Amino acid sequence: MEQFAQQAQQLDHLASTAPPGAVPGGAPFAAFGMPGFGGPLPAAPPEPRPILELEGEEFEDELDALSDWVDDFLLPVYGAEVTTAAPWCLRWQEHNDVVAWLHALWLAYQQHKDPEAGLSGLFVWHRDFLTHAIAAIRAPGGPLSACMTSPDRSAHRLLPGPPRSARSANAEEPAADGDGETPGPAAS
Questions:
Q1: How far apart are the first and last CA of the chain?
Q2: Which residues have CB under 8 Å from 32's CB, separation 6+?
Q3: Mean pLDDT of successive 10-residue segments in the chain (188 residues)?
């Protein structure tokens, strides 16, 4: 019991002589930043958002940062020769699908190069992200297939996407059946 009393006295003394930065009258451990002991909770990192969900200046800033990463890191290291089997486009920022792919690849790169990803983090990025993304972006029939297929011929063309589905088109202009009613799901 005497030992418990001494420990309680030490804790009271430590609480009364709070370290610099502690809030007077606040929780005794607040200055130590210990969650659950009155300390501030660590700030959560911002949730990453897909680049195509961003607008205005936020989109432009993210696209600038992505372009720097693509031009300064990705292409010099992984941008193999431009051929018909591996096309590229100098204006890739105008291809929304390519922007989305590269942004996702960049976010994964940032996560996997973090020390918390461990020593195999970048291997996982290469295996699970890089290879698949580059193959999809630079496929012969992929989003850049109508663009530059030879380093000597700079080309850029946005291919038209498929039209809206019949269901979406019908929802915009409801068609009436023979008795003037809009068709709905079949009754059972």
A1: 79
A2: 19, 39
A3: 80 64 54 56 73 95 97 94 92 96 97 94 96 95 90 84 84 55 45
